[in-house]
Amino acid sequence: xxxxxxISVVPGLMVWTIIAFGITFFLLRRLAFxxxxxxxxxxxxxxxxxxxxxxxxRQEARQLRELTAxxxxxxxADREQILEESxxxxxxxxxxxxxxxxxxxxERLAKNQEELEAENRRMQExxxxxxxxxxxxxxxKVTGKTLDEDDQKRLIDETIDELDVNRLVSEN
Length: 172
What we know:
The chain has four helices and no strands. By secondary structure, it is mainly alpha-helical. Helices cover about 90% and strands about 0% of the residues.
């Protein structure tokens, strides 16, 4: 077949070709194009939903990142606050301990001072008694007589009044 026969217009063939094309187009439009269009729309919707979900996930990730950063900053601030409060409490406990130790020391010193004073008074009384006894013994030897109880009391009182115990204690 020559090339010119293929390109030449044949009215009967042309009518049948248009009719076949129309029927094919009508059948495709009726049966296939709707389904294909539906599939394309479904795919377009899925893609749109996937993009929306991706945007939503991106937004949530951004919010989560911001929230995490805020929580981290809050945790740092809380940690600093707790450390500062711990330092203050430790300082307060240290001061309380120091004050209690100072009080205990003052109390012990006062108690020791009282004990020393009481011991000094006892020692002074003992020295007075010893001096009186020595005086009585010396008086008995000098006078050669034993003194009765009233004389002993009178001599003891006189000797105690005359005796300067502090001078005797400081000499020892």
